[in-house]
């Protein structure tokens, strides 16, 4: 299994279909298509970055699309996007019709020869059903749906201590992975801050939304025979090792890794 040569810039995903995109996979037949599930704070984004580095697909996070939209001046935001940002700030799920509109505009990223690692989408059974419909229409079967598991208390600990760089988006933790200099990113010198939706009042809302609306997806993908579960405790490297092992033992992922000589 070779490492990806160039990290995809995801511009078409983040900015919309009119943005240029640098995805040119060397082996389109080997493109990976994974869906990551798990409670907020479980480490899906970190694992997605590691998987991108190793497997070479694009990290497609709906949360990143909304966070990028926050940087657009208010007067240039569509009413739907402005509404979505209010939901996000409170820790609530953005309504399905808004999320699905965003996905529809970016359908090229799901059909892309470079593959995808979906993080934060789907988050409801309604979203998952529409995604299945899109994928079926293009004859795409995901390689696996990886469900990251962690006890709720640990999830709360991870979310409440998380610090994110406003510039390069690197993630630190106030106690378990602190930056060398308080408040400053080790990688780019940017300012570290707590995400608005990592504040205590939003964390409870997000976890409730996860249990009510997102956790039924575990059953949904289990029935489709796509689900693999991975224990998300320990360091990012521990979790990544478990992820690759789980992919190796899964029906579709195992064939893929074996074919790549890994
Ligand atoms: P994340 O970075 O994935 O934790 O997403 C941050 C926030 O964006 C969530 O708490 C929601 O408010 C919103 N969001 C992201 N993806 C979705 C989705 N698929 N459905 C509904 N809301 C979403």
Topology readout:
Layout: H1 11-15, E1 33-37, H2 44-55, E2 58-61, H3 62-70, H4 79-90, H5 96-105, H6 107-111, E3 116-119, H7 125-137, E4 144-149, H8 152-161, E5 162-165, E6 171-173, E7 192-193, H9 200-214, H10 216-223, E8 227-231, H11 236-249, H12 251-259
Parallel strand pairs: 1-3, 1-4, 2-3, 4-8
Antiparallel strand pairs: 5-6, 5-7
The structure holds adenosine monophosphate (AMP).
In short:
This protein has 262 residues and is an alpha/beta fold. It is built from twelve helices and eight strands.
Question: Any key phrases for this structure?
Answer:
globular; three-stranded antiparallel beta sheet; five-stranded parallel beta sheet; 262 residues; binds adenosine monophosphate; 12 helices; 2 domains; Rossmann fold; alpha/beta
What does this entry look like structurally?
The protein is an alpha/beta fold and 262 residues long. The chain has two domains: 11-149 and 204-260, 3-Layer(aba) Sandwich (Rossmann fold); 152-198, no CATH class. The chain has twelve helices and eight strands. It has a five-stranded parallel sheet, sandwiched between helices. Strands 6-5-7 form a three-stranded antiparallel sheet. Strand 5 (162-165) and strand 6 (171-173) form a beta hairpin. Helix 2 (44-55) crosses helix 11, helix 3 (62-70) packs across helix 4 (79-90) and helix 11 packs across helix 12 (251-259). The termini are close together. It binds adenosine monophosphate. Adenosine monophosphate (AMP) is lined by residues 40, 61-63, 66, 87-88, 91-94, 99, 120-121, 123, 127, 197, 206.
């Amino acid at each position: 299994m070779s490492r990806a040569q160039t990290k995809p810039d995801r511009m078409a995903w983040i900015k919309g279909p009119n943005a240029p995109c640098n995805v040119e996979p060397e082996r389109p037949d080997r493109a990976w298509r994974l869906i990551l599930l798990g409670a907020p704070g479980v480490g899906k984004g970190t694992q997605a970055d590691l998987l991108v580095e190793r497997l070479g697909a694009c990290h497609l996070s709906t949360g990143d699309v909304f966070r990028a939209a926050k940087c657009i001046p208010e007067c240039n935001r569509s009413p739907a996007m402005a509404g979505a940002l209010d939901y996000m700030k409170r820790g609530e799920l953005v309504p399905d019709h808004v999320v699905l509109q965003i996905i529809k505009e970016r359908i090229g990223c799901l059909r892309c020869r470079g593959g995808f690692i979906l993080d934060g989408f789907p988050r409801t059974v309604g979203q998952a059903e529409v995604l299945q419909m899109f994928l079926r229409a293009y004859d795409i079967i995901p390689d696996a749906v990886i469900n990251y598991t962690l006890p709720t208390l640990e999830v709360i600990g991870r979310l409440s201590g998380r610090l994110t760089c406003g510039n390069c988006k690197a993630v630190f933790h106030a106690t378990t992975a602190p930056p060398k200099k308080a408040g400053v990113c080790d990688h780019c010198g940017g300012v570290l801050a707590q995400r608005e939706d990592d504040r205590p009042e939003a964390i409870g809302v997000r976890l409730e939304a996860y249990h009510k609306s997102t956790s039924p997806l575990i059953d949904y993908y289990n029935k489709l025979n796509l689900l693999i579960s991975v224990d998300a405790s320990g360091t990012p490297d521990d979790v990544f090792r478990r992820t690759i092992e789980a992919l190796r033992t899964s029906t579709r992922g195992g064939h893929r890794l074996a074919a790549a000589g890994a």
